[in-house]
Structures are given as C-alpha cells and as structure tokens.
Amino acid sequence: MYWEGVMSWSDRLLIDYVRLHAEGRWNSVARLAGLKRNGKSCRLRWVNYLRPDLKRGHITPQEESIIVELHNRWGNRWSIIARSLPGRTDNEIKNYWRTHLKKKVKRPFHQQQQQQLQQHQQVQQQ
C-alpha cells in the first residue's frame, strides 16, 4: 500500500474511512473522518494517490500506444482515455502526454496542415 512508512495520519484516516463507508460524498468524508481538508482535497488525494488499485511505476510501451491511439481519437479528453488504462489516473496520463509524448507524436491533422503549407510554398517558388 501507499508508502506505509511515509503515510501521514490524515492519509490513514482517509483510507480507513473509505474502507468502512466506500467512496463518495467527499464533503461528508472530510467532516466525519475528522480531517482538516475539504471534500475536493479528499477526493483528489484518494483518486490520485491512495486508491489500492492504482498502478505505480512507468507507463509501459503498450499503455503508451493506447494513449497515442486514443488521443488521436478523443484529443485531450483525459478521463475518457484513462478508462481504457485501468489503474492509471487521468492526471497521470495528461502529465505523461505533456512531458513525454506531445513533441514526439504529431497528430494526423497537423501533418496535413504541414503538407498543405509545403505545397503552397512550392507553388509560390515556381
């Protein structure tokens, strides 16, 4: 589980509360668990860091190809893309795209625009 030796008392309270009462009603979770956080903060902490089914570690080449394929189809709709990668969060996928893939992968539409520009420049040179 999430770095047992480093886990804060508020993380432990949040995990225990969600185990007992399930996910949802995050404003109630914050208040009833005795956390000094708001509901949004509890939800984000759970979804992005504490959920037991989160995958940790590097994105695999297979996951990377899925991200590229789905980004071509859906664009920056990270939560839709994340549904196809169990254990990965939309935030993690977005950050991976922006730091590793954005410059490597050119979208087909962008390539069409470049080709049209090159053709236009060639016509002007003649």
CATH topology description of the largest domain? Arc Repressor Mutant, subunit A
Structural class: mainly alpha
For the record, give the distance between the C-alpha atoms at the N and C termini, rounded to a whole number: 66 Å
CATH class of the largest domain: Mainly Alpha
Number of strands: 0
How many domains? The number is 2
Largest sheet: none
As a percent range, the share of helical residues equals 55-70%
Low-confidence stretches: none
Overall average residue pLDDT: 85
* CATH architecture assignment name of the largest domain: Orthogonal Bundle
Number of helices: 7
Q: Going by CATH, what is the homologous superfamily of the largest domain?
A: Homeodomain-like
Encode the helix/strand succession as letters.
HHHHHHH
Shape: elongated
- Please report which band the strand proportion falls in: under 5%, 5-15%, 15-25%, 25-35%, 35-45% or over 45%: under 5%
Q: What is the CA-based Rg, rounded?
A: 21 Å
Main location: nucleus
GO molecular function: DNA-binding transcription factor activity; sequence-specific DNA binding
InterPro entries: EOBI/EOBII-like_plant, Homeodomain-like_sf, Myb_dom, SANT/Myb
Domain Myb-like: 11-50, 51-101
What is the structure about, briefly put?
This protein is an all-alpha fold and 126 residues long. It is 64% helix and 0% strand.
Description:
- The protein has helices spanning 9-21, 26-32, 39-50, 61-74, 78-82, 90-101, 108-125.
- It is mainly α.
- It has two domains: 9-50, Arc Repressor Mutant, subunit A; 61-125, Arc Repressor Mutant, subunit A, CATH 1.10.10.
- The protein is elongated.
- The N and C termini lie far apart (66 Å).
